[in-house]
């Protein structure tokens, strides 16, 4: 079936990309610098959500609850990060794009991240309305979503990755969450928006 983070459940007919195909990747070039902020990225004020809850799970510590976190943290085959978005009911008529902004370190002013490894990442969606909380662990994850995980997405610094596009009504008025994991990469970043945006965002669009 198609790619599915969480926003897509009913989007099969809307999205025509091949199974598992990354919808798009674009380099964050100097031309992409937002003149208002001096930062790379594509976030239009008022037209995006940052994750309202981030936590981790660990396969090797399957009963550890990490609680609320500000960093996305990944280690090969062990620590995965869960990102939750709250989609207001008022966005039911928009399209939601799930995007990972991954500026190069040289494009960031003050924030930093650590990244090493092959860059293979997997995105899996949970069922809309079933989202992580302080009790979430590897053994106690939110309910699985209706679609299988994506095939790996190769992510490396200096690019923005569109993971998924689908109608927002699937999650409007509730939360939508997903897990991002890796088999080969150690990666830790501060999910920032105040300085230059980095990390996972949901953006709204209207044709
Ligand atoms: C959402 O995307 C679909 C597919 O591209 C398009 O047909 C539809 O008009 C879009 N809806 C809005 C509100 O932009």
Describe the structure.
It holds the Pfam family But2. The protein is built from no helices and 15 strands. With 207 residues, the protein is an all-beta fold. The radius of gyration is 16 Å and the shape is globular. The model is unreliable at 1-21 (pLDDT under 50). The chain binds 2-acetamido-2-deoxy-beta-D-glucopyranose (NAG). The site of 2-acetamido-2-deoxy-beta-D-glucopyranose has 7 residues, from loops.
Number of strands: 15
Structural class: mainly beta
Total helix count?
Answer: 0
Measured on Cα atoms, how large is the radius of gyration? 16 Å
Mean pLDDT: 84
Shape: globular
**Which small molecules are bound?**
2-acetamido-2-deoxy-beta-D-glucopyranose
Oligomer: single chain
Number of domains: 1
Signal peptide: 1-17
Protein name: GPI anchored cell wall protein
Organism: Echria macrotheca
Domain Ubiquitin 3 binding protein But2 C-terminal: 49-194
